Amino acid sequence: MTPVPLTWLYAPGDRPAVVAKALTAGADVVVIDLEDAVAPDRKEQARAATAELLAEPQPVPVHVRVNALDGPLAAGDLEAVAGLPGVSGLRLPKVTTAEQIVRVARATAPADGGTPPLYALLESALGVEQAYAIASAHPALRGITLGEADLRADLGVREEAGLDWSRSRVVVAARAAGLAPPPQSVHPDIRDLEGLAASCAHGRTLGFLGRAAIHPRQLPIIERSYLPTEQEIEQAETIVKAATREQGAQALPDGRFVDAAVVAAAQRTLSLAQRR
Fold first, then answer.
1. Which residue range forms the structural domain that includes residue 255?
2. Is this structure's pTM higher than 0.85?
3. Domain co-membership, 181 together with 263
4. Is residue 219 within 8 Å of 33, Cβ to Cβ?
5. How much is the pLDDT for 261?
6. What share of the chain is helix, strand, coil (3-state, %, to 5)?
């Protein structure tokens, strides 16, 4: 069984040495960034370096975040990297419509089929409002998540709580479309590990699973925050064992009611526990 990804580590595409370190940092997925992390005068250099690297398969899954779909660079980014052996997914920033996903899926589909997996970042009020339409736009779309820095600016939000409605909207849209739970957006202060842990704990209560990172030191905090605790594992084992003995809804000795949905949640917990 393929492990559930919990960590996505961003690395700027114009800095090959940083990308090389990211590939050995222990992240589940490395995201080579051609967008925000790259200065305008280095975009072509970043694209060329990324295409050269990903011409060969890589030791870990690698996604590429291309430039904004409504800008002049995205088409060239997609043409350069979409079909490369080292590319495991394409991350599409600032998505606002389902039609954008359909266009990218068609543009990146090889002649023999097999469009690369697409992941949409919703970074504006319009993107959040269209969350379900985007999430269900095309079979090639495998995930959605928020880009919280841009969304915060778009909404004029100053406090963390101001983003919770948008966070929940994206979690619900992903589930409704049959996608995996979305990962959290990055925690921008790489020195604030306590704040990162607290933010991950809050994200977990909202239904997120895993998180993007911008520095390797954030990876163990994210993974530890999203792995089930010993108590959660014990509870899940109790539920699954009870379900194998009985058919239909039932009550455990401690009074907790168990039905199919509770059993499914327990099985997801045990699946994650395999990473411990």
1. 230-273
2. yes
3. no
4. no
5. 73
6. 45, 15, 40
